[in-house]
Design goal:
Two copies of one chain form a homodimer.
Chain A lengths: L1 E7 L1 H4 L6 H12 L3 E8 L3 H14 L2 E5 L10 H8 L4 E3 L1 H13 L6 H4 L3 E3 L3 E3 L8 E6 L2 E6 L3 H19 L4 E10 L3 H7 L1 H5 L5 E8 L2 E10 L2 H19 L3 E4 L4 H12 L3 E5 L5 H7 L8 E7 L2 H6 L5 H7 L4 H14 L4 E7 L14 E8 L2 E8 L4 H22 L1
Parallel strand pairs in A: 1-2, 1-3, 3-8, 13-14, 13-15
Antiparallel strand pairs in A: 4-5, 6-7, 7-8, 9-11, 9-12, 10-11, 15-16, 16-17
Helix pairs in contact in A: 2-7, 11-16
Chain lengths: 413, 413
């Protein structure tokens, strides 16, 4: 079963709004076993709507349309669809009741243009909008389904989940698509590709692989198609197991979990706590950790020692060590990790000291040179990294590398 | 001048990645006076790429293509474009140098598939990728321009800003459009709209206004079109001056400057320094401040006191005060600001303590309750905020509100 998505709205074409509806719809259709072959964004323009409907219905069986259903003049989708399907209008009583209800709740006066929203093309099956005033519309023509939905995300989402997907499942005998994403860090995409080349080549025909790189992270997405859900799950899990045999050290989790979430789970499981001492990352590691709800169970705090005086006064790093080795050195970063662990009384202290750039690099220590240390009760380790030229990326990659050092220690225990 | 955008990537069609490239590209093209008429997302599939190129070139003069340029097997855009434009390949020496440089900087081994990226279709003008290994490609055919760019956002953005837009401006002698963005914070969009309604109505016909809201920030973009650059500048500056007369207190800068950059400039000008004591923001303020290159000139460090023990031990907050008032209180946040200022020996101490959520709220102090304090040499002030339900947004809005309190103090002096 093939689908296309058509998002209508001038605001999308001038870049004022990011099209989050498209990715959400695509993800829901995929989960239901429907393949999205194209997403098209067009203006609130009659001819553009006509053309894109013609084109989409030649390629796909199901056409999802969002946007342009508001009560104001610039919203022309309903009128245009009525013309496209050569349909007159009828008054839809349940929608009128819903409009009255919404205006009463918000204590707003009901105007003519609001009541107008209860007029629907007679050739469609109206879909009640539980969270707004504009109804959805389900058309069928020459074996194809066209569903028009409001552009307001939370109105559209409820309509898709509660009405549109169940109707599609009922109407079509839907095949099954299973996705599993393997999250890796600490290895560049190209190196990973070489390591898993043979595994990739032996994948069964119905399992596809995609590389999805982000700064410091490469996601490997396996997509399996077939009729039997159980069988697919087994097949995908078998392949993931083989993959683990090859690149286990780089895999930090599955299905879009973040490394900071994984670390949180491990620390909770071990009843252990964490503090950070950050120089070049400037609080970014602490920010990632505290972005996770409930992180106060294991994260105690951090000392951001941007200036060397903070390294000596708050973390107890020896100023002689800083003078002799520089702030970006094994000795100093180890002292930072031990210092914060001691000061904040945590199981682990994680420390980073590096040159994020653009300034501050030398020949011996160019921009991107980063030392990371982890201190535990009877254990200190430090590692040297060379990242790139770009400040923001250096900060991001340093943070991920630091979190990964902690993760590897926690799973090795 | 009409443009279309084609985003290539299976990850977009299964909804795993939100298409932020499309909105960014659309916005940049718009700013250059180019109208985007359609955005199409397709799979990494040869036929889909061929079809969408055919279709787009019938409707538009400029076709922006992103994605599918990685070194791995699933990325087929380069090969497909070479076929589409009936072109062989040549080795592009500057790209090879760039690839070698990137791998040397990161101290990674250079593999065959990386070197392969320096092969470019001979019929294109290669565009050097300053931030990555995959070059962009500029093709021209039958008076139309086709530009292919990497899908990694920061690689694509630098290429568009530094190479693609300037080339388009030169090629098409684009009419002059002047943009000026007024950055505001501390006021919701709807309130702002009412305050500036009369000013908006009196704007000359060639100056258009767009509201661009982000969490905690509303950008007002003025776009003026005309032939004479000098005249446009005067006209736009006149309107901005009028606007300052109405909403001066909310304006923190112009043209996408960040509030953390503005604060850096003010602190440097005053020869003053800053430290932060962060509870619910968990290091996010320190992260924003240290995202600015050169921030070590004024930012000394931070104490992230996630646990109350850190508030008492490292910041000197009285434990009785915490017991009596709670950690989220005027008294505690003021003590945090004074404490960090004293401990880190800075001109200012900025402190935040609040309930980010989703847990930890009470009837008296629901999720979103945030206290912020600023301490200077002879001055302490604290302010109470009520943000929303959403953890990430509460952290972001708390940080912006804190930075704005500091900014208002610095410009008032």
């Amino acid at each position: 079963m093939r689908a296309e998505i058509i998002n209508i709205g001038d605001e999308l074409l001038i870049g004022q709004v990011v099209n989050t509806n498209a990715s959400w719809m695509a993800s829901e259709l995929n989960k239901a076993g429907i393949t999205v072959v194209r997403i098209t964004t067009i203006a609130d323009d009659r001819q553009a709507i006509f053309n894109s409907l013609d084109e989409a219905s030649q390629r796909a069986d199901i056409i999802f349309i969002s946007g342009g259903l508001g009560p104001t003049k610039d919203d022309i989708t309903k009128k245009t669809l009525a013309q496209y399907f050569d349909s007159g209008f009828v008054f839809h009583e349940p929608t009128y009741e819903q409009i009255k209800f919404i205006f009463a709740t918000r204590q707003l006066p009901l105007t003519e243009i609001n009541i107008e929203q209860a007029q629907v093309p007679e050739k469609c099956t109206p879909l009640l909008n539980k969270n707004g005033t504009a109804p959805g519309m389900w058309f069928e023509k020459e074996g194809k389904v066209f569903v028009s939905m409001p552009g307001v995300p939370f109105e559209m989402k409820t309509m898709v989940s509660e009405q549109v997907i169940p109707r599609l499942q009922e109407k079509y005998h839907l095949g099954f698509i299973l996705h599993k994403t393997v999250m890796t860090t600490g290895v560049p995409e190209s190196t990973l590709a070489i390591k898993i080349m043979k595994w990739e080549e032996q994948l069964p025909e119905n399992i596809k692989l995609a590389y999805l790189p982000q700064p410091g992270i490469v996601r490997l997405r396996l997509s399996a198609t077939g009729g039997d859900k159980k069988q697919l799950e087994t097949a995908v899990n078998d392949e993931v197991d083989k993959l683990k045999g090859i690149i286990d050290e780089y895999i930090f989790g599955y299905d879009d979990v973040s490394i900071e979430e994984v670390i949180g789970q491990l620390l909770v499981a071990h009843h252990e706590s964490l503090s950070t001492a950050e120089s070049c990352t400037g609080g970014y590691i602490a920010h990632l950790i505290t972005s996770v709800p409930g992180s106060s169970r294991y994260f105690i705090g951090s000392i951001i020692s941007y200036a060397n005086a903070v390294k000596t006064n708050q973390l107890g790093v020896s100023s002689t060590d800083i003078e002799m080795n520089g702030a970006v050195s094994r000795k100093v970063v180890m002292a930072m990790a031990k210092g914060v662990r001691k000061q904040l009384k945590t199981t682990y202290g994680l420390a980073v000291s590096g040159i994020a750039g653009p300034d501050g690099g030398t020949k011996e220590k160019p921009v991107g040179t980063v030392w990371i240390a982890l201190a535990g009760e009877e254990h200190v380790e430090a590692q040297l990294f060379h990242f790139g030229e770009h400040r923001g990326r250096n900060i991001r990659r340093s943070a991920l590398a630091g979190l990964n050092i902690l993760r590897l220690h926690l799973i090795d225990k």
